[in-house]
Amino acid sequence: MLVSEALGAPTLVALSDSRALFETGLIVVLAAAAPLIAQVLRAPSILLLLAFGFGAGAIGALDPDALFGQSAVAAIVSIAVGIILFDSGLELRLDELRGGAHRVYRRLVTIGIAITWAVGAVASYLLFDLSWEVALVLGAVLVVSGPTVVGPLLDYIRPTRDVATALKWEGTLADPIGATLGVLVFQAVVAGQARPGQEAVEFFASLGVGVGLGLAGAALATAWAKWFRPTPSQGFTGIMMFVVAAVVAADLIRDDAGLISGLVVGAVLVNRPPRGLDSSGLTVQSAKLARDWRGQIATTATFLIGVLFIILSAQVSPSDIAELGWVSVAFVAVLILVARPLAVGVATLRSTLQLNERAFMAWMAPRGIVAAATSSTFALGLSKAGVGGGAEQLGAITFVVIVGAALVYGLSGPTVARALGVASDGPGGVLLVGGSRVGRAIASALQKHGVGAVIWTGSEELAELAEVEGLTVYRGDPTAVASPEAAPELDSVETALVATDDDGMNAMLAADLAEFYTRERVYQLATDTDDETGFYVRAQVLFDDTATHQELDAWMQRGADIGSVELGAEGRGSEGAIPMFVVRGSGGLEILTSAERPVLKPGDQVIGLRRA
Question: What is the dihedral of CA 288, 292, 295, 301, to 10 degrees?
Answer without folding.
Answer: -150
